[in-house]
Automatic annotation (TrEMBL):
The lineage of its organism: Bacteria, Pseudomonadati, Atribacterota, Candidatus Phoenicimicrobiia, Candidatus Pheonicimicrobiales. The active site is at D249. One of its GO terms (molecular function) is ATP binding. Homodimer. GO terms for cellular component: cytoplasm. Requires a divalent cation, most likely magnesium in vivo, as an electrophilic catalyst to aid phosphoryl group transfer. It is the chelate of the metal and the nucleotide that is the actual substrate. It is found in: Cytoplasm. Its EC number is 2.7.1.15. Gene3D superfamilies: 3.40.1190.20. Keywords: ATP-binding, Carbohydrate metabolism, Cytoplasm, Kinase, Magnesium, Metal-binding, Nucleotide-binding, Potassium, Transferase. Transmembrane segments: none annotated. Its cofactor is Mg(2+). This is Ribokinase.
Length: 301
């Protein structure tokens, strides 16, 4: 199977489960608490590896005790960690997360060592682009590094997939022409294009050079533009939403798995919806992602 390079963040998530979000100055007692593997890059790498996709992670951790947790959880999930290095000055990235009774989350991220994934890091790891077929990345590392990695990907003949999260204003439009598949959610799509109209937003991004835009719409599902129309694929219904943390990362891994296996966008979106439906029924991000063998693939029929 085609190999994926995942360039991105590696965090440890500190998650509090609360009935509601606290008001400023208010102290709440949480119902539960967990420490989980996180970071969009690491999450997506783990989700891919659990789907039996050969996956190599490019990123940085700190020299603290959290780095051991991060590296072991990636390795145990089947991710190749030879592209991960340890910072000598920063701690491992972390995220403080509140999850409310409806399973919605609010997140505060400390970048830590992720901020050191600079252009020199990309240059030092160019050799890993040689035997890969895909590059998957996000916006949790420096933008200059992402642009250089996308250029390397095209130089080495890789297909590229971008998760534009956390969303930020892009001052260099050159980046869009290197992206084959962009997977924003509705909020990110609006931020990137300054329009509420999904079809108009997709056309704006395509006019800038993006090949395909797949829009994640949460409980509504996901869709893309085909022949001037927006094709929506409904989300897979579940009995109870427990925690949506990492669901978008799981969706992206499912979509990429579908593209590797079938090269068909509608089928890949359906697989992504199905894969993500397992994630939202458990607590945590990476720990909630399904193994390929756990998925009821008959639901695609």
């Amino acid at each position: 199977m085609e190999k994926v390079l995942v360039l991105g963040s590696i965090n440890i998530d500190f998650v509090s489960f609360v009935s509601r979000y606290p008001q400023p100055g208010e102290t709440l007692i949480s119902n539960d608490f967990g420490i989980f593997q996180g970071g969009k890059g690491a999450n997506q790498a783990i989700a891919l590896a659990k789907l039996d996709v050969p996956t190599l992670m490019l990123g940085k951790v700190g020299k603290d005790i959290l780095s051991d947790f991060a590296l072991s959880s990636l390795q145990e999930s089947g991710v190749d960690i030879t592209g991960i290095s340890k910072s000598q000055k920063s701690s491992t990235g972390s995220a403080s997360i509140w999850v409310n009774a409806q399973g919605q989350n609010s997140i505060v991220i400390y970048p830590g060592a992720n901020g050191e994934v600079d252009e020199n890091f990309i240059i030092q790891h160019e050799k890993f682009f040689d035997d890969a077929s895909w590059l998957l990345t996000q916006f949790e590392i420096p933008l200059k590094s992402i642009l250089l990695a996308l250029k390397f990907a095209k130089k080495h003949g890789l297909k590229t997939l971008m998760d534009p999260a956390p969303v930020k204003k892009i001052n260099n439009d050159d980046i869009w022409g290197f992206i084959d598949y962009l997977l924003p959610n509705e909020i990110e799509l609006k931020e990137l294009t300054n329009t509420d109209n999904v079809l108009k937003a997709i056309r704006i991004l395509k006019s800038l050079g993006v090949k395909e835009v797949i829009v994640k719409l949460g409980k509504q599902g996901a869709g893309y533009e085909d022949k001037g129309n927006f094709n929506l694929f409904p989300a897979v219904p579940v009995e109870q939403v427990v925690d949506t943390t990492g669901a978008g990362d799981c969706f992206i891994a499912g979509f990429l798995y579908g593209m590797i296996q079938w090269g068909d966008i509608p089928r890949a979106i359906k697989i992504a919806n199905l894969t993500a439906s397992y994630s939202i029924q458990k607590k945590g991000a990476a720990i909630s992602f399904p193994n390929k063998s756990e998925i009821d693939w008959k639901k695609l029929e």
